[in-house]
Amino acid sequence: MSLPKQIYAELEQIVGAEYISDREYILAGLRHAMPSSPVKPLSPAAVLLPGTAEEVQQIVRVCNRHGLKFIPTVSSLIGFAYPTALNTIILQLKRMNRIVEINRTDRYAVIEPGVRHGQLRTELMKAGLSYPVAAVGPGGSVLVNFACSSGDNHNQHGASRTNRYILGVEWVLPSGEMVRLGSLANDAGWFCADGPGPSLRGLVKGYAGPFGGFGVITRIAIGLDEWRGPAELPTEGRSPDYKLRLSPDRHKVFIFKFPTLDRLRDAMIEIGKAEIGQAVLKYFNATAALLATQSANDFWELWESGLFQRELSRPLYVYLATHSAEETAYEEAVLREIVAETGGEEVDPAIRAIYENNMDFFILVGFLQRVLRLGGAWAPAKLSADSVHHMFEIGKAIPEFLEEFAAKRLIVDAPDNFQIISMEYGHLAHIELLFLWDRSMPAWGEIPMQVMARSHETEIRHGHHGSMPPRSMPMLGTLGPLYSNCHIWSEKIREAFGTGR
Amino acid sequence: MLAPDVCSAVGEELSRAVGAENISDDAAQLQSCSFDYSVVTGTCPDFIAYPHNKAEVREIVRIANEHHVALVPVSSGPPRFHGDTLPSRGGIVVDFSRMRRILKLDAVSRCAMIEPGVTYGDLVPALEREGMRLNAPLAPRANKSVLTSCLEREATLIPKYQYDYMDPLLTVEVIYGSGEEFRTGSASGPGSPETLKADKVNPWGPGAIDYYRLLSAAQGSMGIVTWAVVRTEVLPTVRKLYFIPLENPQQMCAPLDALLRKRVVDECLALDNTNLATLLAEDPSRDFAALKAALPPWTVLACVAGYQRRPAERVAIQEKYLTDICRDLGLRAQTTLPGAGGLEEEVLRLVSGPWNKEPYWKLRRSDRCHEIFFLAPLSKAGYFVELMRELVAQSRCPELDYGAYVQPLVQGRGAHCSFLLPCDSASESEAEAVRGLFLSASQALAKKGAFFSRPYGPWADLAYRDYSDGAAMLKTLKQIFDPNGILNPGKLCF
């Protein structure tokens, strides 16, 4: 359904005719179903491409005046980017792609929502700086990963989750007001997200973000770390078959396998306590097989060989990134000591070579799109964080609910396809379980809901903090009381500030 | 003061809630709650209540809501400096000194679960016995509440363990002003605290809101926290403290920044000779002047450490980085304290635990003091130190021997800047001049970009007068969490 002409004209006046459309063939591209959901989104009423925060503010005010809903988006790779109600407009923010400032001295970068990981990371490496790049591929929006969605990354053992790196925030509220958070509020610069007083930064993002459901963040500053690699990545070959090796004096990759999850857990905890390593994780094995192959046929051939099930069902990936050969040698010695104590062994050298030959797994994960190659669908059933110990307890309970789905051949039989990523030197860890299914099966749309429901049941039975409270209100109404009544508080806050959608 | 009939009803209900022996309306005790070392003017509370557990706290909040009585949570012992615990309109001071249990020490997941009355004097030795330590502020007083210090985002000594300004606070249980109970992060659920198996160390959420941030630096005005989980660290087995003498404060940024970029050091901070001498003098009235004269104008303290595995090797690598960085900058890192050799162990002790002597170190040279503190990028710390020198020189007390301290924070991306202004109450004119300097310098510093992120007392006006949008949002949140405005009214923008 198109916008009334007068409203369209008001919006057109803000962004210019070039950056608004309600043409049918344009809108058709904005209402396609996501691979993991059978639900066909409603059509937006129009799409706008604002170029500045001021334009965003004006658009939001027009929306409020006329009762329109709006969805800000950049990459549009998740369901939240699509309308669920009529009279919704899409704010496509890809034009707002300026790196406003890279401050080498105070180690922060100020960015707009359209800045992508590939763009920012490339510029930062030239300045000897870096940040934890969310494992979404180089095309993902940095701002969205940091402030609006989830944002876990392979390197958060020696760093943290992206939400920890948010500094100053400039935010167009659902009311259309612009508010600045942290030190920016008092014109003191971009260096701090919290204050003055109680930190409004708490409304921007919790464990996850609001996925565009709470106004529009138009600029953020993110904290930067030192980059321990070269100013330019030394790639060889062409994508997708490229290689990226960094100096072995300072960058080393190890993959060990463990006889039990408990031993693997103990190794991860000890590595954290020793404060060594940049990336330490138990990675997905089916996803690893997808990333290691170049076609669906290659994947099935590899998967059916059983190699990745045998070698990578309980793997520990460790990436050392140091400042000197001496420090690398020290970290390797400590690592080997811990692995020997906990009963780990090196995996098949061919598997380790995959990661040694392409360290991009720990940098931009430029080949991440391969996980979509099977053409079916995938979804996460766990997405949460707590101690390393607790995450492994959750991991051990996965077969309790997943095996029945595999036995009925509703999902790919990959019970070990979960990752546990250590963060902040093992102070916490993140868990994510990915399951894959075939969309050609009857009633395939029911599968993810059933898996997630059984996953929740298992968590409740064990007292496991294995998932975020769901975002949909009907489910939140049921599960919220089990999560300290968070649904009541989040609803009160939504009512007080509005949402925009 | 409450009306007599309300006072009587509240007293009776409080007695039933916490027991008559756990409330006080003793005039002297009430009077002692009405003043501190800040410039804030307080009023006498009507009661002091000493809860022992969450149920009693909940009941106190219910009584306060029913009678519209203010509640002022107080967790630390005196002396207090910021005015945040002074009642603005009487009411009930909720004193947590009897909720003082360490509920859990977990060396595997590196955390401690504590009640609000647990002090640095309680927790630091308890952690050491378990092979752990806390990232704590510089020489906190032994009777200071750890929970309050964390909740108020106080600056801590080890920037590499800070990923944002909320560390080391992880999760909390809170009774909001509405009387409802809530738990944050992975403490939220599923299920009750008794059935939940999580270690409660994920601070974020639940869901899309960081609820714990909304409680931070709130001076108890959003909710009353009944326990918190704080992160702890491995206790080093080898430590080596280095001193980097500096001639002027502009030199401090380069070494601190370089060390923190590489994550070389554990504790690191910069102190001027006034503060360092104040901390180290055996008897300040006797030793302070000579010690200060012997010390360099500024000293960076930087500690390298090894933990449980190959500690000596780790320390050797870090030492090499440290000395290389200093050499490249034309500085010298040394293991003896310049100008005061022999006091190195004492310095190490100062950065390792609470201040156990009397009086508290901030009151060693005078019986009163005012402290100005704020946040800035580390690169600007030297500028603010110079600016403060100019402001003092232009003030009515140009000879004031104030102390300065810069604490890098959050991996060195920010810094806590502190200026300690001593004043002697025996001289009314001096006290007035220092008070005037405190107020005018705070304003001047804020104008130049000092960020008063914890806006106590008069700083609230600096923080919120040009921040009406943010203040309006905070008031909206206050209305949600404390609809009757019973929690510490008159603070911040409330």
Question: What is the gist of this entry?
Answer:
The complex is a heterodimer of chains A (501) and B (494). Chain A is an alpha+beta fold.
Task: Provide a descriptive summary of the structure in words.
The complex is a heterodimer of chains A (501) and B (494). Chain A is built from 17 helices and 20 strands. Chain A has 501 residues and is of the alpha+beta class. Chain A has 5 domains: 5-92, Uridine Diphospho-n-acetylenolpyruvylglucosamine Reductase, domain 2 (2-Layer Sandwich), CATH 3.30.43.10; 99-226, Uridine Diphospho-n-acetylenolpyruvylglucosamine Reductase, domain 3 (2-Layer Sandwich), CATH 3.30.465.10; 232-295 and 315-371, 2-Layer Sandwich (Alpha-Beta Plaits); 375-468, 2-Layer Sandwich (GMP Synthetase, Chain A, domain 3); 470-501, no CATH class. In chain A, the strands form 5 sheets. A 7-stranded antiparallel sheet of chain A has the order 17-14-16-15-19-20-18, sandwiched between helices. A 5-stranded antiparallel sheet of chain A has the order 5-6-10-8-9. In chain A, α1 (5-15) runs antiparallel to α3 (53-66) and α8 packs across α9 (296-305). Chain A is globular. The two termini of chain A are 17 Å apart. Chain B has 4 domains: 4-98, 2-Layer Sandwich (Uridine Diphospho-n-acetylenolpyruvylglucosamine Reductase, domain 2); 102-234, Uridine Diphospho-n-acetylenolpyruvylglucosamine Reductase, domain 3 (2-Layer Sandwich); 236-359, Alpha-Beta Plaits; 366-457, Alpha-Beta Plaits (2-Layer Sandwich). Chain B has helices at 4-18, 27-32, 54-67, 120-129, 146-151, 211-215, 253-261, 273-280, 284-294, 311-328, 344-350, 378-393, 428-447, 459-464, 468-481; strands at 23-24, 47-49, 71-74, 92-95, 102-106, 111-114, 132-133, 169-176, 181-183, 223-231, 233-234, 238-246, 268-272, 298-306, 368-376, 403-409, 414-423. Chain B has a 6-stranded antiparallel sheet with strand order 12-14-13-16-17-15, sandwiched between helices. In chain B, β5 and β6 (111-114) form a beta hairpin. In chain B, α8 packs across α9 (284-294).
